[in-house]
Amino acid sequence: MKRYLALVLALVMMLAAFTACTTGDEEESGTSTDSTAADETVGEDTKSEGVMTYAEYVAADVDAQVVVETYIQAKQGWWESDGVGVATFYTQDYDGAYFLYNMPCTEDEYAQLTVGTKIKVTGYKSEWSGEVEITDATFEIEEGTYVAEAVDLTSVLGTDSISDYQNMFFTVKGLTVEAIGQDADGNDVAFYYSYDGSGSEGDDLYFNVSLNGTTYTFTVESYLCDSTTDVYNAVEALSVGDVIDVEGFLYWYEGVNPHITSVSSAD
Asked: Are 208 and 196 contacting, i.e. CB atoms less than 8 angstroms apart?
């Protein structure tokens, strides 16, 4: 379920210090759960001339060129593809979110693209297995700062309107951990390494949760939150029947398949 053409290089180049992910109320560098930091802004989110609003971006055809202004919310590890440095970014403005897939950038530029940084992006609107993203992008750093607060989608999960929030930083509360499969002894297990259980520690984690009678598969994306992070360890410690709250980015793969950045026990 990952883009296997990039897998080998990505695993080699993946940064070892993705410490941006947390459990509970700890602040994370990729997303902020602190209510003060989460609403920090400088200036207003006024679009420059020639820049699309989020509504115009949504209305644009797939494969059309798009120009947006948006703010970094989290980033996957920097690596080289055919000798060109690239990274994938989770970004958001005041109205919606934009997933920037494998955007070219130098390692120095990657370091500058910290959470909250405003950028102007020119690229092409693309779609992959339902995930709407911007590809073949270039960017300029601009003045301004915005860190999005997690939008609570507990009441929206399982409805048609969930797609309106694609790629946004979100939270869902009161999820029940369901078995994703069984081990060699026939015991229920709460998570898989890789989507089919064929992986090992360090690969993506997949786990099932249910809400209001519907079961969903959530992912800890290892390029975003690797095996050293709190969220990765928290999912490894889950048991079937646990009730949890989560935060993450509403990624899409043939339906809702969020990239989770925080897991905590439900109150």
From this structure: no
